[in-house]
Amino acid sequence: MFYTLLMLDNSASKLHCASLLKFEPYYPPLCGIVQLTNSATLSELEFHNNLILFSSQDKVYYMEKLTVKQNKVARLIQEDISLISSPFTEIGNACGLTAGEALGVTQELLNNGFIRKFCAILRHQKAGYKNNALVVWSVPSNQLEKAGKMLSEYRSVSHCYQRNPAFQGKYNIFTMLHSQDKKISLLIKDMATATGVHDYLILESIQEYKKKSPEYF
Amino acid sequence: MDDIDKKILNILQKEFPLTERPFQIVAEKCNISEEEALSRIQKMKDKGIIRRIGAVFDGAKLGRISTLCAARVPQDKLKEFVSAVNANKGVTHNYLRDNEYNVWFTINAATAQVLELFLSDLKKKTGVTDILDMRAVRTFKINATFEV
């Protein structure tokens, strides 16, 4: 028995299989993580409107796609909304919807997790967060969960991932740190002491070549 | 930035009101007029403090494949390499970092094949062959909120 992560390639009806470390469905509607035997195969693959269903043994997983209406609104709200009294009236007008409908679609996308949050996105250096660094940690595999969670509890950590392959064969946990005043090196020392992980690299940025929001639609 | 600007920034980051008149609600919370709220926000955009106001989509939930790449780029190839990377619309971050792997960028693509094809073309085109492709296998935290 082993665990397999199944993800649907959205350009073709092809399934990618990759072995995964642990059973934990981060995005349950997107991809199921399923336990398979070596001999198991995916038996069915069906397309139903905006739902893509696939089943394995007795379990069925599905992936949602956006509706045409959701797509129209998504295209506009992935950008910068206008600084006017009623921005959603403008967004609605561009999509053939009322302001209320445009807001409804936005709320719907938030509720089902397609939108992580709706907010102002800052240039953090200009907002006073002058000290920033990518710090990578070499964490033994049996301590990944504990260390990942502990590092994530720091308010100064904006992003924390386990990555594979690890950098230089051992730095497997990646954290982005942002700090207003505290010396970032002191903060990192504190993190090392708390987690007991003393093998780390601080990768400071020398120059920013590009920083932009993704365009998905 | 004064205290009102800071309060506005925190509200816009943490509890943007999804209503027909969002800036009216923000203004009420700060005891200022909607007009003043809009003009303060505009000024913070002009100063570059606010990059944009809008939705942050979950790429993975949309089925996008993303990764963090680190490349070892010789000084004489740096300019060409950076422009080849930045030309890809899926590249959202690209930094020069203090390491032998000096160029670090994040990229997302519709499929894993598209992503891998871009990386192999990039290697061929630029002659930079040492590019690491480090996929996130577990997300512990994503929260880019900067309280001021």
Explained architecture:
The complex is a heterodimer of chains A (217) and B (148). Chain A is α+β, with helices and mostly antiparallel strands and 217 residues long. Chain A contains five helices and twelve strands. Chain A has a four-stranded antiparallel beta sheet, covered by helices on one side. A three-stranded antiparallel beta sheet of chain A has the order 2-1-3, with no helix packed on it. In chain A, strand 9 and strand 10 (171-179) form a beta hairpin. In chain A, helix 1 packs across helix 3 and helix 2 crosses helix 3. The two termini of chain A are 39 Å apart. Chain B has helices spanning 3-14, 22-29, 34-46, 78-86, 112-126; strands spanning 50-57, 65-71, 91-97, 103-109, 131-142. The model of chain B has no long low-confidence stretch (mean pLDDT 95).
Helix vs. strand class of chain B: alpha+beta
Strand content of chain B: 25-35%
Mean pLDDT of chain A: 77
SSE order of chain A: EEEEEEHHHEEHEEHEE
Structural Rg of chain B? 20 Å
Strand order of the largest sheet of chain A: 9-10-8-11
